[in-house]
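Researcher: I'm preparing a figure for a lab meeting and need a structural model of a single chain. I don't have an experimental structure, so a prediction will have to do for now. The sequence is pasted below. Please return the structure as C-alpha cells so I can convert it later.
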Amino acid sequence: MASELERKKSTREIIRLIAGWLFLGLGVFLLVAFVSYLFNWTVDQSLLSGDHLFIPEDSAANSGGFAGNRWADLFVGQLFGLSAFIIPFFCIAVSVFLLKIRSVRIIPLFFTTAFLCILLSIALGYIFSFTNLRYVFGAGIGGTYGYRVNEWLIGILGTVGTGVVLFFVLTAFPLPFVYRWIRRRKEKRQTAALSEPAPTEPAVVSEARGPAKKEVPVTPVAPVPPPPVFEVEKTEEASTSGTMLFYDPKQDLSHYKKPPLDLLEDYRNRITEVPQEELERNNQKIVECLRTFDIQIEKIVATPGPTVTLYKIVLSPGIRISHFTRLEDDIMLSLAARGMRVIAPIPGTNMVGIEVANDKPSLVPMKSVLDSTKFKESKDDLPIVLGKSISNEIVMLDLARLPHLLVAGATGQGKSVALNAILTSLLYKMHPAYLKLVLVDPKRVELNLYSKLENHFLARLPDADSSIIIDTKKVVYTLNSLCIEMDNRLELYNMAGVRNIKEYNKKFQERVLNPLKGHRFMPFIVLIIDEFADLIMTAGRDVEGPLTRLAQMGRATGIHLVIATQRPTTNIITGTIKANFPARMAFRVASKIDSRVIIDVSEASQLVGRGDMLISAGTDLQRVQCAFIDTREVERMVDFIGDQPGYSGPFELPEYSETDRQDMLNPSSGQRDELFEEAARLLIQNGEGSTSLLQRRFHLGYNRAGRIMDQLEEAGIVGPPRGSNPRELLISSQEMLDDFLKK
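Model: Understood. Here is the structure written out cell by cell.
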C-alpha cells in the first residue's frame, strides 16, 4: 500500500514537472514569436492564406517559424493587438506555480490577464484610431477585436463618451493593486525597523537564569551604530511601545489555505435512522425482562444514537440500584443483545440506563462533524473532533487541556481511523505556523500517507531521511530530542518570566522578547505513535524513560502525546505511563482484563466494534461512535495541503546523538565533549559564560550544556558558578584562547 501511494505521488510530481516546463517553453516561444511579428508581419502575410498550411518553418521570416507566425497573427493581429504580450507572461507565471518556484494564485491571475487583454485592446484601438497607425497589423495597434468593440462603443456613446469611459476604467483598474503594494511595502519597512537592534538600551542587572528584569521604556535617541555589548546583556524583554507592529507567525505562509470540506465524502447512503418498530420491540423486551426479575419500572425512554440506543429507565420506589446492577449478565442473556452496557445511575439523573446495539449501525462521516458549528466556532488550542455520542451530539476535546491521549483496542476495531480523525481535525483547524507533528509509525503503512506534509506540518531530526519515523533507534533519538526541545523551552520560559506556551507566544508576538537573545515563536508539537507495543518490546526503557518525561512536563511547553496500541496489557501500558495519560480512548478489546488496563472497568470488552468506543477524559465514561474517514479522503486532504508552497524544509528538532546518550549513561566520563572548543569560542565571542547560551546556540539539552561548562571550568577558561549571574571569563580574547588550546 505504501509503495503504491509513493508511486502515485511520484507520478503526479513528474506530470506537474513536465507541465511546468511545457508552459515555460510555450511562454518563451510566444514571446519570441510576438516580438518577431512586430517587424515581419507584412513579410509573412502571404503565408497565412489557405494554400500555405504546410509551409516549412524556414519559409517564414518570423523567428518562431511558420507556427510562431500563425499564433502571433491570431493573438496580435486578429484579437488583442499589443495587449496580447500579456499572454506569454501568464504562461510563464503558470510554469512558476507548477515548478513550485513561488506561490501564484492561478485562477485570479487568469481572470486578471483576460480582463487586461480585453481592456488594453479596446483602449489601444481607441487611442490609435486617430493616428496613421490605424491599419498596423491589419486592424490597428489594438487588433481586430479592439477595433470592432470601439466601433460599437462609439456608435452608442460617441467618441467623447467612449474616451471618458475608457479613461475612468483604466484609472480605476490598477488602484487596488497599487494600494496593496504600498501597504505591503509599509509593513516590510516597519518589520525591518523593528527587527533591528535598538540604538540604546537602559542599564539592567545581568542574569543568566531566573525571570528577566523588565526594562523601563525610554525615549529613543538619534540612531547610532549598536554597541558591541548588545549581545552581552542578559535582559530577555525588549522595550515596547504602543505603535509596535504585532508579529504574525503566519506571514511566512500568508497564502496558505486550509483544506475545504468538499474533499471529504458525505456517505449519505450509509446514514440510517433507528426504525420505530425496533425501539418499541426493545422497549417491550426490557420491560418483560425486568419484570421477570421482579424489577418494576415507572417509565422507559429511548434515545437512539448512531450505533447504540440508550434506554433510560425510572425504577419504581423501593427498587435498589445494587439489585439492578447485579442482574446485568442475566439481563444481557435475556435480551440476547450485543454491545449491551448497564449504566446505574445515569450521571445527573434519577434514572438507570441500558445501552443496546442497533440492528443496523449508522456511519458518522468525518465531514458532518467538521461541518458542525461546535467545531467551526471552537476556540480551543488543539481541537480534536472524535465523533457523535449516543444522543447524536458532537464529541470534541481539546488536546492542549487533556494533555495527552492513550488509544487502545484490538486489531480492526477503529484505532487507525481514530488517529486519522485526530490528525484531520488538527489539519482542518490549524495553520502550519502553529502546529508541528512528529509521526511514529513502526508498522510503516498507516501514517505514511502524511509524508507529503513535510514542508508544512511535520517535524524531524536534522539528519533524518524521512519525516515519518519507522526505525526504533530513530524513535529513541526523536523522543530524547523532544526532551531537549522541552528543556530549551523551559529555559526560555524562565528567562521570559512566563509559565506556559500561550503566555510566552503572546509576549513574543507583542515583541516584548528579543529574537537576538534566542527567543522564537513556539508552535505546538503533537507526537503520535501508532503502535506503542512494538516500541516497548524492541526498545523497552529507552522509550519509556523520555516518554514519561514528556508526559510529565510537556504540557506547559506545548508538547502533547497521542499513543495507540493494540495490546493493552500491563507490560505495555505500565503504571507510570497510565498515570501520565489521564485521557483514554478504548475500542473493543478481547478480554475484561485488557479493558481494565485501559479504562479501569471491564466495559470495553462489550463494545460493538467498528468505531464504537468509550472515552475517559477525567469525567464519567462516554460512549462515542468514532467519525469515519477513508484513505482516499486522507489522500485528497494531504494532496491539497502538500501542493501548496510550504516552508523550505520540515521543522527541525534539536540534534541528539550518541554523545548525548553517553553523557546520560556515564556522566563521570573524563573525555572532553566534541563541542568543547566551539563552546569556548562562542562564550569568548559573546563575552559571557552562560549555560543557556550553549543550549540555544547548539540546541543542546541542559545536562550536556552543563557538562561542557564544567569542562570549561576545569580547563580554566571560565570561573566557578556565581548564582544567577554568568560565569566569569578567565580568557578574554580569541588569541589567548588559541594559545591556550595549542598548549
